[in-house]
User: What shape does this take?
Amino acid sequence: MEFLIKLITFLLFLMPTISSSQYLGNNILTNRKIFPKQETLTSYAVVFDAGSTGSRVHVYHFDQNLDLLHIGNDVEFYNKTTPGLSAYADNPKEAAESLIPLLEQAERVVPVNLQPKTPVKLGATAGLRLLDGNSSELILEAVIVSSLLKKRSTFNVQSDAVGIIDGTQEGSYLWVTINYVLGNLGKDFSETVAVADLGGGSVQMVYAVSREQAKKAPQVPQGEDPYIKKIVLKGKKYYLYVHSYLRFGKEASRAEILKVTNGSPNPCILAGYHGTYTYSGEEYKAFSPASGSNFDECKEIILKALKVNDPCPYGKCSFGGIWNGGGGSGQKTLYVTSSFYYVPTGVNIADPNKPNSKIRIEDLKTGAEQVCKTKYKDAKATYPLIYEDSLPYACLDLIYQYTLFVDGFGLDPLQEITVANQIEYQDALVDAAWPLGNAIEAISSLPKFDPFMYYFI
Assistant: This one.
């Protein structure tokens, strides 16, 4: 026995020592808690984005540090169906049933044993917000009863799981998404990036400001969203300037621009097109003058639609008398998403083969001047990436974006912006969209996560 003890002692002496810092590795630098790698410490979240042009499902997989884990070869599962819920305004049951294929796909992604602990969210955006009467409420009630709660879902569905996301929520979640993926959360506000999102029905501008600047935010009438939203992320408090401009998304803005000419020829429409544009149940005559589309004349009409000359009681306004947040270092780097990506890539101003790329705002003007010379009959052959129903408005959409940035948001035409559909994260790509921010909020509310890591106040 004594010989055996001596032998074991000798062998232990020969083994290489491992310091605690070597064992903890990078965790000692990141101040993260160390957990054994067990499946029970990972969590999933499911988010439905019920937008104006279609419904999408996103599934995310997080570790105990709220870092994204792979789902197959990607770090999110994504799928889409069209049309959006707002297309079923007269048939709420059919609206709910349109989501069932997406729900079934999500259930195939999340392990069965984790589904009861997996939070699910459905956020309806501008398209549903614009429906008349109680159509939106009836659709959401049908979604809850028919497809998420009563019959089909095995997920963890809380009472607030389904609802209409207002523009400030949508913008705030997107800001969290982009800055999370870029690794900016927890840093000073000046090291974060601003985001602008052009959806179908609304456009959002969001960026972080200093505490001193946040105090200057004007009071808004009762019932309206405040200009500043406070968020604590990774122990850091941020003051977000966020505003959503309803009726100024890509599809909605076309209607506003056509309203200005009120049935007369519109210089924003490609030469040779004569038709009608339908938005939110209303029809608008859309046809060009005999001379075709014209950049300067179109821009004048867009300026009227944006109401850039409305009185500004706050000193610094964007358009329509809206406070612009004051600008600053939190806005110096700007990521723009949704139709801010699809429109310039559709005419090769930005590279359509890249998930994101940098352009200057003035590139939109240069591209518009070229596109506006195109006749409608030649547009499909010239710009094959543009959907057929968007071809008449190819000139309009570009001039609108340029005017919105320069005359609406007051940005320098020479400013470089990143047009993004997806952003690199580790060895994969993440959609540049609000659902990840919503998923982070849902996941961080689970008991096993630090509630102050991501917490909206």
Remarks:
- The chain has two domains: 41-165+434-456, 183-432.
- The domain at 41-165+434-456 is CATH 3.30.420.40 (Nucleotidyltransferase; domain 5).
- The longest helix spans residues 167-181.
